[in-house]
Amino acid sequence: MKPHVSRRTICLGMVAALHATLAAPVFANEPNWPTKPIKLVVGYAAGGATDVVARLVAARMGTELGQSVLVDNRTGANSNVGAELVARSPADGYTLYVFTIANTINATLYNKLGYDPVKDFEPIGLIAKIPNLLVVNPSLPVQSVQEYIKYAKESKDGITFASSGSGSSIHLSGEMFKMKTGLNMLHVPYRGSAPAVTDLLGGQVQSMFDNSPSAMPHVKAGKLRALAITSKERSSLLPDVPTVAESGFPGFEVQSWFGMSAPTGTPAPVIKRLNAALNTALSDPAVKQRLVDLVATASPGSSDDMRKFVASELKNWNEVVKASGAKAD
After folding, report:
1. Where would one find the signal peptide in this protein (predicted)?
2. CATH number of the domain to which 211 belongs
3. Local mean pLDDT, 10-residue blocks, the chain (329 residues)
4. What's the total number of domains in the chain?
5. Distances in Å between the alpha carbon of 165 and those of 112, 161, 181?
6. What was the pLDDT predicted at 25?
7. CA 211 to CA 224: how far, in whole Å?
8. Using an 8 Å Cβ cutoff, are 181 and 156 in contact?
9. Which of 165, 186, 248, 274 has the most C-beta neighbours closer than 10 Å?
C-alpha cells in the first residue's frame, strides 16, 4: 500500500523546489565563469591613487581569469555614487567595486547612504594600504613630532593642518592626532589634495597628513619636511622618518586602503575564484614593485580577513568622525 501524501505536502515540496531553483548560484549554471568581461567600479576619477591601484590589479587579474577586468570610474559623493551602483547590481560576479577607507568613514560621515557598507557587499579581499605623512612647510621651526606638539602648545593660535576635504582620510588622520594629543589644531579643508599641498608649499597652511604618494616628491625635493609616517612600520623609501607610534603614540596607525567587493549574494565559488585571482595578482613581482613605487604595501589575504578588517575600520572611524563633528550631506 502506497503511503498517503497530502496535497499540502505536495504544494510545499513544489514551493521548496522552486525556491531552490531560483536561489541556485549562478556559478552552477555557468561552470566556466567568467564567460564575459568583468566591470570593476572605482568611485573616484581616473589618475588618482584608487584608480591607479585598481587598474594595476585589474590587468593582472584579467590574465588570470581569462577575461578582461575593465575599470569603470563612477565619481561623486566621496565614492558613494559608485558604491550604490554596485550594491544595486546583479550578484553574478560581473560587477565589482573597489571598496576603500572612504566607505567606512562615510558610514558615519553621512546621515543617510544609499547602501549599507556591510550588508550590501561581499568582501573579496584587500588589495593594498598606503600610509599618510605628517608634513610641514620647512619654514616651520620643528624637526620632529615632539617639537610639532611643543610649537602648537606654545602658539596662541595653535597650528593649522590642511586636508583634501572634510571627512577625507587625510582630514581624519589629523583629527585622530588631535584626539590623541589634545592640541589646538585648526582644520583647513580644500577641494582636493592638490590645492591643499599648493598652499602648504606656499606657507598659507602649516601642516598636513597627506597621502604618501602625493607628499613624497616634495619631501624628496626638500620642499616639505616629513615629521612622521602613519603606518605601523617605517617606509623603506623614507627610512629616516619615524612612525607616529615611535614618536610617542603607541598604536597610532592610519592608512588609506583599498579592497575589492561584490554585491551581497554573489555565489561563494565566484568569490573564491576572484579572491584567488586577486592574490595571484598581488604576488606578481611587477605588481608588487609598482605598489612599492606608490609607497603602498600589498595586502593579500582571504575574504574573511577583509570582512574583519572592515568591521574594525567602521568602529574606529565611527569614533573619530563623531569626535571631530564632521558631517556631509
Report:
1. 1-28
2. 3.40.190.10
3. 50 47 49 94 88 95 97 92 97 97 94 95 97 96 97 95 89 93 94 90 96 91 97 92 96 94 98 98 96 92 98 94 84
4. 2
5. 19, 11, 22
6. 47
7. 13
8. no
9. 274
**What angle in degrees, to the nearest 10, is found between the helix axes of 285-293 and 49-65?**
180
Examine residue 23 and state whether it is found in any structural domain, yes or no: no
Cα–Cα distance for residue pair 35/53, rounded to 1 Å = 24
* Rounded Cα–Cα distance for residues 9 and 161 (Å): 69
Ramachandran bin of 40, using left for φ above 0, alpha for ψ from -120 to 50, beta for the remaining angles: beta
DSSP label at 79? G
Place of cell 565566484: 270
The pLDDT assigned to 45 comes to: 85
**What pLDDT does 4 receive?**
54
| The overall pTM is greater than 0.85 | no
Task: Please report, for residues 168, 171, 193, the alpha-carbon distance to residue 190 in angstroms, rounded to integers and kept in the order given.
Answer: 10, 10, 7
Q: Give the cell for residue 155.
A: 602658539
Helix axes 303-324, 101-109, angle to 10 degrees: 40
The CATH number covering residue 93 comes to: 3.40.190.150
Residue 256: strand, helix, or coil: strand
Helix axes 268-283, 49-65, angle to 10 degrees: 110
Same domain as 171, residue 159: yes
Task: Clarify whether residues 52 and 195 are in a common domain.
Answer: no
